[in-house]
Amino acid sequence: MRPDLIHLTADGVSALLDVRRGRLPALVHWGAALGPIDLADATAIALTDVRPPAPSSPDDPVRLAVLPEQHTGWLGRPGLSGSRDGESWSPWFRVTEVRTGTADADGLITLSGGGRVELEASDDTAQLGLELVIELSAAGVLRAAATLTNRGATYRLDDLSLAFPLPARAHEVLDFGGRWAKERTPQRGPLNVGIHLREGRRGRTGPDAATLLTVGEAGFGFAHGEVWGAHVGFSGNHRHYAERLSSGEQVIGGGELLLPGEIVLEPGESYRTPWVYGVYGDGLDDQARRLHRHLRARPQHPRRPRPVTLNVWEAVYFDHDLPKLLALAERAATVGVERYVLDDGWFRGRRTDRAGLGDWYVDDEVWPDGLTPLVDHVTALGMEFGLWFEPEMVNADSDLARAHPEWIMQTGGRLPVEARHQQVLNLGIPEAYAYVRDRMVQIIAENDVRYVKWDHNRDLVDAGTAPGGAPGVHEQTLAAYRLMAELKERFPGLEIESCSSGGARVDLGVIEHTDRVWVSDCNDPFERQEMMRWTQQLLPPELLGAHIASPRSHTTHRVHDLGFRAGSAFFGHFGIEWDITRAGDSELDQLTEWIALHKQYRELLHHGELVRMDPIDPTLWVHGVVAPDKRAALFAFAFLGRSDAAPLGRATLRGLDDGTRYRVALLTGEDSSGGQPVPAEIVLPGRALRTVGVQVPLSHPDTVWLFRVEAEEWAVGQAVKGTLPALQ
Ligand code: GLA
Q1: Does domain 390-518 bear CATH number 3.20.20.70?
Q2: Integer Cα distance of 436 and 358 in angstroms
Q3: 497: which DSSP letter?
C-alpha cells in the first residue's frame, strides 16, 4: 500500500507531499511548520491547494508537481524537455513506488526531524523512467533531485528542472549579480507575470550567479517577512528561475543548463540532475541560518578551528624569490599565522599568466632545490603548507598543450577565444584527467601539502570535446568534483579552497568537496563588508576566506587602516594577503593582537548563529554571531559612510535570549570625538536589547567596532564559561 500524503517536518519547516493516485509528488504546502497534523488535516490542506476552475482554463484543476508536467494543463515551464525525434516530449509519469523508510500509517506518513522520500515513476508510452528523491534535512532545508532513464531508442534531453511552489503572498524577488572583484551584489524587484530567468552559461558558477534566488513577502528583511529560496547545487552551466503565471500560480526552481546535444541518452542510460535546494525562512536570517545549520551537520564539514592563513599572492605575485618567501614565512609565524599558502607561479614556465598552466612540475629554474626549502621552513615554524593549482586549465604555451592539443576543450574545428591567455583542459578525457591527477598526487605527496587553493580562472566558451566538438561542460564539471574527491580520499585531512578568479565558484555543489571558498579577489574591506554579508546568505562564515590585505587595496586603490581591514575580515576564515615583510612594528603588533583576538573568538564565530540587523541608517551595518546556547555573542558595528544624522541614536541587537541579562562591552573601536563611547559598557536584558537597543557610538567612516555580549553570571544562576577574554 502506498501512502497518500507525506509530511516532512523539521526545525520550523513543513513540506507536505501529495502522492495520491499515482501522480508525481506535489508540494501542497512548503513553508512554516504545520505542527502535528493527522490524515484528515493533511487531506484538507491538500484540498485547499485545489484552485476553482477559472473561465477559459482546463476543466480539471491544474496540478503542479515537483517535476511540472504539461499534460496536467500546467502552462508554465515544464520540468522535462526532450524528445525522441519529435516524439515522447510530453510525458505522463505514473508513480510505481514510494519509499520513505517508514511503515505506512493510515495514508499519512509523518517524517519528523526531516527525512527522505524516494519515488519511482515511469511513462510506458514515452518509454521513460524517473526517480525522484526529496529530502528535508534536520535544519529544514528541502532538496530534490531527479534521475531520468531512457527505456526506448535514443532520447535527446534538453532540460530536466525541478520546481517548488510559491504562495500567492510571495511577490518580491531577491537574487544576486556581480562581477570580478565585486561578487554577489544583491538585486531586488517585483515578481511579474512571466519568468525571472537567471542562466549561468559560463561553465562555472560565475561571479554573477543568482546564488540563492529568493521570493518573499513584500519588503522582507533580515528579521521579517517570509521568504522561499531556490539554489541549484552545481558548478557548471545552470539555471534558476521564478515564474508567475497569469493564473496566479507561481514557482521557483532550476536545474543544470544543458547545451544542445549535451545529454543524449542511449537505451538504458540515465541522467541525474544536481540537487535543487529549497530554503524557507521567516526573514533572510532565518533562511541563512537554516543553510548554515544544514551545512554544519554534514560529516565533511570542517570542524577543527579554521587555521589563520597567509596567502602570498598579493605579496609577491609571480616573483618567486626564496629568501623573500622565507622572510614572509617567518613574519607570518611571528604574528600567529597557522597556514602558509604558496600561490600561482611555482610550476614550470609560469613567470607570468601567459604560460605554464598544465605543466605541474616544480620549476627548477626558480626552485633549483624544489619547494622543499620553503616547505621545510614553513613546517618547522609550525605552520601547514598550502599550494595553488588550476587543474582544469592549460596555456597554449605549455608542454602539455604542445603534446596534447586535442585535450583543449573546443568545437567547430577551431580553438576557443582565449581568456586570461588560457584554455580549458578537457578532464572529460580519461587520459587528461589521469595526467592531472597523477601530477597533483605527486606534488602533494612530495611537499607535504595540506591545503590546495584550487583555482579556475576562465569561463568555458565553446567547451566541446575534440575532434567532434560535442559539448562537454557537464562532464567537465563532474570530472572536477571527481578529482577533488579522489584527492581527498588519497590524502585524508587535505583541505581544498574553491577559488575562481576570486569568488566565481561558490555553490552547494562544489562545497561538497571543498572546505572554504575564496570570496573575492577584492580585499578592500569596504567592498568585502557587502560581499561577506551576502555570501553568508548561502554559506556560514567559517567557509569564507577573508584576508587582511595591504593598507592600499590592490583592486580599488582605496586606503584603509588596519582596524577596518581586520574588523571586516574578522568573522570569516581569517587570514592575511599582504607583504608583511614591509609592515612596520606597530602594524605587526596590531596584527598580532588581531590574530590573537580572532583565535579567542573563532569558536564562537564559527559555531554561532548569524544575525544581521535591518539598517537604521544606510551607513551603518550591524551584524553579529550568537553562541548556540545564547550565553555569548559578538556584534560588529560597521560604519560604511557619513550619515546625514550624527549620532545615529539607538540600534537594537537581536538573537539573544529575552530573559537573560547581558553585559555589552566594547572590544575594539575608537570614538570619533576622541573620548570613550557612551556607554562603553552596559547591562541589559536580552528583551531590552531587542526592543530598545544601545546607543550607536559616534564614529568615523570606514571603521568597525566590535562589542562582546556576555550573559551575566547571576542572571542565569551559573558561572559563565570562560570562553571570552577579559575586557581590555
Ligand atoms: C586568481 C585568484 C587569485 C590568484 C590568481 C593567481 O585570480 O583569484 O587569488 O590565485 O588567480 O593567478
Answers
A1: yes
A2: 8
A3: E
DSSP annotation string for 657-689: -TTSEEEEEEEE---TTSS--S-SEEEEEHHHH
* Dist. CA 667 → ligand 1 center (Å): 34
User: Looking at the predicted structure, is the pLDDT value of residue 105 above 80?
Assistant: no
Record the pTM.
0.97
Domain range annotation of the chain = 3-296, 390-518, 610-711
**What is the Å distance from ligand 1's center to 121 Cα?**
46
Task: Check if 515 is active-site.
Answer: no
Q: How far apart are CA 704 and CA 684, in angstroms?
A: 22
Q: For residue 413, how far is its CA from the centre of ligand 1 (angstroms)?
A: 30
Of the residues 459, 521, 524, 702, only one is catalytic, namely: 521
Residue to mutate (ligand 1; options 309, 521, 553, 576; most atoms within 8 A of CB): 521
**Side chain identity, residue 91:** P
Residue type, 428: G
Among the listed residues 286, 343, 455, 459, the single catalytic one is: 455
Pocket test for ligand 1, best of 309, 311, 389, 457 (most atoms within 8 A of CB): 457
Q: Do residues 201 and 256 touch, judged by C-beta distance below 8 A?
A: no
**What are 53's three cell numbers?**
476552475
Domain 3-296, what fold?
Beta-galactosidase; Chain A, domain 5 (2.70.98)
Other Cβ atoms closer than 10 A to 239: 22
User: Which CATH code is given to the segment(s) 610-711?
Assistant: 2.60.40.1180
Cβ atoms of residues 387 and 378 within 8 Å: no
Active site residue 658: no
The pLDDT-based confidence of 680 (bands split at 50, 70, 90) is confident
Q: Which residues line ligand 1 (CB under 6 A)?
A: 313, 343-344, 353, 388, 455, 457, 499, 501-502, 518, 521
499, 500, 505, 547, best to mutate for ligand 1 pocket (most atoms within 8 Å of CB): 499
**Pick from 514, 475, 522, 523: nearest CA to 494:** 514
pLDDT tens-digit map of 341-399: 999 999 999 999 999 999 999 999 999 999 999 999 999 999 999 999 999 999 999 99
Closest Cα to atom 1 of ligand 1:
501
